[in-house]
Amino acid sequence: MMGAGPEDEEARDDEKPQHLVRITKDFYMGQYPVTQGQWQALMGNNPSHFKGSPDLPVENVSWYDAKNFADKLSAKEKVKEKVKYRLPTEAEWEYAARAGTTDKYYWGNWMDGDYCWYDENSGNKTHPVGQKKPNEWGLYDMLGNVYEWCRDQCGKDYYGKSPAADPTGPSFGDFRALRGGSWCDESNLVRVSNRYGRAPAYRYRSYGFRLVRAAL
Fold it and tell me: How many angstroms from the chain centroid is the CA of residue 130?
């Protein structure tokens, strides 16, 4: 089930209606957000606002920057034909973040700082990936630390007309989706179903990403 449940009083309209989604194609999800060390090794620079450890998540990157990284990584590793690294769809991201759970957070319906960095425990900065508890599928920092760009256009009314299988977002729009909340967000913005749209060229010190490896 994708989207906010009826019991989630903090959910906005663009997180509804909750709807059944089938993901029919295999994909591998990165265990962590892409780090500054990974970015620098491939791209030769570091755009991040917060620096100090190669294990900090890369941030201050646009959707275009993230896509360019994924394309370069695919070319460098020479992944087999019809398979590549890319940003996850919103459906893939939420499926991986929930890891079989149905609550507001992947650990329950209450905020627990043992699982994520958010405004009350982050000290107003990012932190090296993997320091908090993972979800049930062993994925770290799916909530908090940095927002994660997704592949989709972010349509406010898309959930009401989303296809049941492998949704990829609206066919056009001005914004790309960001998911997961960040170090500077209150707990209500770090919920699994929370969605946020930004222009794909926009960069900010709380915007990062993680990759999937999947069929085209």
Answer: 15
